[in-house]
Design goal:
With 164 residues, the protein is α+β, with helices and mostly antiparallel strands. The chain has helices at residues 3-11, 58-64, 77-84, 90-93; strands at residues 16-17, 19-23, 30-34, 37-42, 45-52, 66-71, 99-101, 107-109, 114-126, 129-141, 146-151, 154-159. It is 17% helix and 46% strand. The longest helix has 9 residues, at 3-11. The radius of gyration is 15 Å and the shape is globular.
Length: 164
């Protein structure tokens, strides 16, 4: 087994929230499904988003310079698949569910658990991916108590009522 295969198998054991990352601007409206998103710091509020450089939308995100991280709920497994489907045209993806915009102009999923409206501050190229450091400009949080995570190469729903 190669180190790359071992790495992928081990990373499958690291559960991650599932998000749809969107952008809109002069380069057009695009989106993709991601689990490689995390906080960097809260002063200033900054997120890290990783995107494969071979993605059809990669250059458009860089040109627009903005993005929105839409954290998916347990009810969004199908939407995750839509935004991961490379055969769909960009505009087809946004026909699913309801979308709004915040200050950056990037599409915001109306039914997301949380949405982080961001500007891309810095980009580093690492291996096959671009690492976007994104300064959060606005946040929207819903009352949705259940989130969608990806663990062991499968979707799972987490959350709900908290037991004391």
């Amino acid at each position: 087994m190669t180190l790359q295969t071992e790495f992928r198998n081990a990373m499958a054991q690291l559960g991650s929230a599932v998000s749809v990352i969107t952008t809109d601007g002069p380069a057009g409206k695009f989106g993709f499904t991601a689990s490689a998103v995390c906080s960097v710091t809260d002063q200033p509020p900054t997120l890290l988003v990783c995107m494969n450089r071979n993605s059809y939308a990669h250059q458009h995100f860089k040109q627009n310079g903005t993005l929105c991280v839409n954290v998916l709920s347990g009810d969004h497994q199908g939407l995750s698949g839509v935004f991961a489907n490379a055969s769909l045209r960009s505009e087809e993806r946004f026909l699913h569910d309801s979308w709004q915009v915040m200050s950056s102009g990037a599409p915001v999923l109306s039914s997301s658990v949380a949405s982080f409206d961001c500007t891309i501050d810095t980009c580093h190229e690492v291996g096959s991916h671009s690492v976007f450091y994104c300064q959060v400009q606005a946040i929207r949080i819903s009352e949705q108590p259940r989130g969608l995570v990806y663990f062991n190469r499968r979707y799972h729903t987490v959350g709900g009522d908290v037991q004391a």
